[in-house]
Amino acid sequence: MHQKGSLISPLLNGVFCQCDSSESHRGAKPGGGDRHLCGGPEQDHRLKVLFQILDVNGDGGICVNDLSIGLKKLGVHRTEHELMKIVKAGDKDLDGQLDFGEFVHYLRDHEKKLRLVFKSLDKKNDGRIDSQEIMQSLRDLGVNISEQQAEKILKSMDKNGTMTIDWNEWRDYHLLHPADNIPEIILYWKHSTIFDVGESLLVPDEFTAEEKQTGMWWRHLVAGGGAGAVSRTCTAPLDRLKVLMQVHSSKSNSMRIAGGFTNMVREGGVRSLWRGNGINVIKIVPETAIKFMAYEQIKRLIGSNQETLGIAERLVAGSLAGAISQSTIYPMEVLKTRLALRKTGQYQGIGDCAKRIFRNEGMSAFYKGYVPNMLGIIPYAGIDLAVYETLKNWWLQSYATDSADPGVFVLLACCTTSSTCGQLASYPLALVRTRMQAQATMAGGPQMTMCGLFRHILRTEGPLGLYRGLAPNFMKVIPAVSISYVVYEHLKMYLGVRSR
C-alpha cells in the first residue's frame, strides 16, 4: 500500500488549494500544509481531469472496474473490497457508479472526516503524527501494538523518510482509500448490538460525535432493532425449547431436542413454536433505548471525554446501563417466560397474561428471578468483553498488515465465540431466574428462593442440572448472529445509513 512514486500526489496537489487565510478555512494551520477542496474554477477543472482519468470507459460514471484500472494508472493499488466500499460510500442514487457530482461530494466529505481524524491523532498538536501517538491512540481504544508495528503503519504513509506523517501525506494516502482513520479499528471491531443472539447484550453501541450530530445514531439503532426482531423471530422455536427444558427437564423427565419439538407441535400446532416471541420482540425497543441513554449518562458521570471507552470503563458503564434497562423492562421478561410456557387457550394474549398474574400473584410476581438476573450481568458482560478483546487483539497482532478491517466472517466468528463464552458462564443464573419466573405455573411445586433453588437442583440433578436447555441455546447463536447481520446491512441501506 506504499504510494512512493505514484502519480496521484502531484495530481492531487493541483486539486487542493492553498488559501491559508481564507475565512472558509478558519482554524487551519499556516504554512501551506493545510489545503482544502475549495471548489473554485481551477480546482473544478482539475477535479474533472482526475474524474476523466478514473472514468476509463468514458461513460460519465466511475464503477468499481473503472476505479481499479484508473487508480493503477496513477500508481495506486486497492483491493476489490476497498474499491466497492469507495463506490458504495459515494453512490447516492444507488446506480452502482459515481457520476461527477457524486465523485466531488465524496472527495470533499471524505477530506473533512480525514482532517478531524488527523487532528484527533495529532496529540502533540504539532502538525505531525509519530509512532508514539499511533500507539497511544490505539491503546485508548483497547488495542495494544508494539512500536515496530506502529512504525510499519507509519512507513506505509511516510513519503520523505522522516518516520512522521504530516497532513499532506495522511490525506494523499487516505483520500482514495475507504478507511477513514486508524481509530476506525474501533468501528470495525466494536462490540455491536447488531449481532443479536436473542439475549441482552450489555454493552451498547458507541457512536461518534458526527453520528450524534447528524442523527445517524438513531438510524443505526432502528436498523439494529429491526435486525434483532427478525433474528429473534427466526430462532424463536429454539428459544422456546430452551425455556421448556430449563423448567421441565430433569433426571426423571429428560427432554430431548427432537422430542421437545414434537411435543410442542402436538400440543399446540406449528404456531405454538413461536409462543412468547411477540413480547420478546416488543421489548427490544424500550430495552435498547433505555440502555443507550443510561450508557451515555454513565459515560459522562465517570468523566470520560472520549468518544470510545477503554475496556474496564466499558465493562462498568455497560453493566450499569444493562442493570438499569433490565430493571425497567424486567416485567416483560417474566411475561415472555409465562407466555412461552403456556398451554393452548391458557391466555388470550399479552394483556390477559399480565392481568392474571397481577390478580393471582400480585405485583411482586413481575420481579421473580430479578436477583439472579442482576447477578448474571457481571459474568456475562465481563467474559463476553474479555474474550472478544482477546480475539480482536490476537487477530490484529497476527493478520492486520495493510488493513484493520477483519471482514464479515472474522467478526461473526469473534462475536459468536465471545457471546457463547459469556452465556456459558452466566447460564446457571439464567436457569435459576427462569425457574423462579415460572414457579407459579408448576403445579404443586414449591416456591423457592434463589439459594434454595440452587441447592435443590444440585441435590436432585447434580451440576449438569444447572445447564438444562444449553444445547438449543447454543444452537441458535450462529443463525441468530448471521441473520441479524444480513438484515442489519439491508436495513442500513434502506435507511440511508453510511457504512461505518
From TrEMBL:
Annotated Solcar repeat ranges: 215-301, 309-394, 406-494
Species of provenance: Gadus morhua (Atlantic cod)
InterPro entries (UniProt xref): EF-hand-dom_pair, EF_hand_dom, GDC-like, MCP, MCP_dom_sf, MCP_transmembrane
Keyword Transmembrane found: yes
The protein's name in its UniProt record: Solute carrier family 25 member 25b
Compartments (UniProt record): Mitochondrion inner membrane
UniProtKB keywords: Membrane, Mitochondrion, Mitochondrion inner membrane, Repeat, Transmembrane, Transmembrane helix, Transport
Gene3D superfamilies: EF-hand, Mitochondrial carrier domain
Coiled coil segments of this chain: none
Domain EF-hand as annotated: residue spans: 42-77, 109-144, 145-180
Similarity-based family: Belongs to the mitochondrial carrier (TC 2.A.29) family.
Membrane topology designation: Multi-pass membrane protein
Gene that specifies this protein: SLC25A25
Upper taxonomic lineage: Eukaryota, Metazoa, Chordata, Craniata, Vertebrata
Superkingdom to which the source organism belongs: Eukaryota
